Amino acid sequence: MESRSPRTSPWRRFLAATLACTALLASTGGCAQEKDDRPPGCRHVSEKLEPACGAWLGIWPRTRADGTMSVDLGANLASLEERLGRRIDLVSRYYGWGQEFPDAWDRQWRDGNRILLIDLRARNFSTNTYVSWRSIADGEHDEYLARLGARMRDFGAPVFFSFNQEPEQELEKGTRVAGTAADFAAAYRHVREVFARAGARNVVWVWWIMGYLGHTGWYHALYPGDRYVDWISYDPYDFNSCKGGGHETPEQSVMPFLTWLTASGIGSGKPVMLSEFGSNGTDRHDWYAGLGDVVKKAPRIKAIVSFNSNPGGCDTRVTNSESNWRGFAGLAADPYFRQRG
Q: Residues in domain GH26 (predicted)?
């Protein structure tokens, strides 16, 4: 009997699921039967999860379809997908230091032919205490990281992974909080190395930053290096009144940092993800509809993820009004943002 290498099985599983997923099982988060209207040349996704054409569409499922905030993420996603009439291909998760993942929701969504975007922050969400990036880089937490690496390996499917998204949040508070930009880059590299030793070859590594032009002085030092990063990711928002400013167009929110990134040479040629996007307010149909047009003009952008939440102050829920929902639903209906048929 021909032997199979466990190193390649996640990708075989991914390809098989993409081709064979045909039935929606609402109780288990199964796959929706949907017409594949993509051109034949656009039905390929690389081992680094880069689609040949178009872009992934994802969401942070923090609300139900009626806009109600809920911690029942599984029910939230099912509600959102039922209202949309399609599966959402990419789902984001935020984990704090000390938590174990993937969890039951992650496995359910994997089995429903979705891709996970998982972030691990160097902060305990329960105690709001930070773990220093230098202590991570120096190997003081390898037992925990090795356990996570093994769990990610055993997840058995390709998964996007980010270490400590938006590290600028810590740097804005000062280097005593978690460390310096160089400490972050060293910690990122070390986490990847520990995961590699655990055999987590199914992990696709995302460098996830704010993408704020006021912080460009940090980005070269924050970047772990091309060997350690598969995707570049940043978070374009139209905060408008919640940050005391005026409304931005999608182009004004997205393009200035992408232009800077390209000129900087950081991650040259790597695919780009908009790992959080949103516009504050309840009359934002045109912003969400226009976002699709901007992304289509920037073919380096290969994934976009709605930050469907209202953590306080800035409300970027696509579910908070009929106007916002129609804009997001228009994105979801566009074949450009459908990678799973």
A: 40-341
Single pTM value for the model: 0.91
- For 97, half-sphere exposure in the C-beta direction (CA atoms, 13 angstrom radius) is 21
- Joined together, the tokens standing for residue 263 give 């000129």
Three-state DSSP state, 56: strand
Q: Residue 21 region, left (φ>0) first, then alpha (ψ -120 to 50), else beta?
A: beta
- Please report whether residue 296 resides in a domain: yes
CATH number at residue 232: 3.20.20.80
Residue 201's Cβ-count burial label (10 Å; 0-12, 13-18, 19+) is middle
The type of residue at 47 is E
Given 2, 140, 276, 322, the catalytic residue = 276
| 36 assigned to some structural domain | yes
One-letter identity of residue 236: P
The closest alpha carbon to 233, from 287, 277, 170, 293, belongs to 277
d(CA 65, CA 237): 21
Integer Cα distance of 287 and 321 in angstroms: 13
Tell me phi and psi for residue 188, to 5 degrees. Answer: -55, -50
Looking at the structure of the chain, the number of domains it has is 1
pLDDT at 33 over 70: no
Residue 163 has pLDDT above 80, yes or no: yes
CA angle 30, 33, 39 (to 5 degrees): 125
Domain range for 318 is 9-337
Coil/strand/helix, residue 157: coil
Single-letter amino acid, residue 229: V
Choice among 166, 170, 248, 251 that is catalytic: 166
> In the annotation, is 100 catalytic?
no
Domain presence at residue 134? yes
Q: Is residue 311 part of a domain?
A: yes
SS3 158: coil
What are 183-229's pLDDT values in tens digits? 999 999 999 999 999 999 999 999 999 999 999 999 999 999 999 99
Summary mean pLDDT of the chain: 91
Tens-place pLDDT, residues 247-275: 999 999 999 999 999 999 999 999 999 99
Q: Is 170 a catalytic residue?
A: no
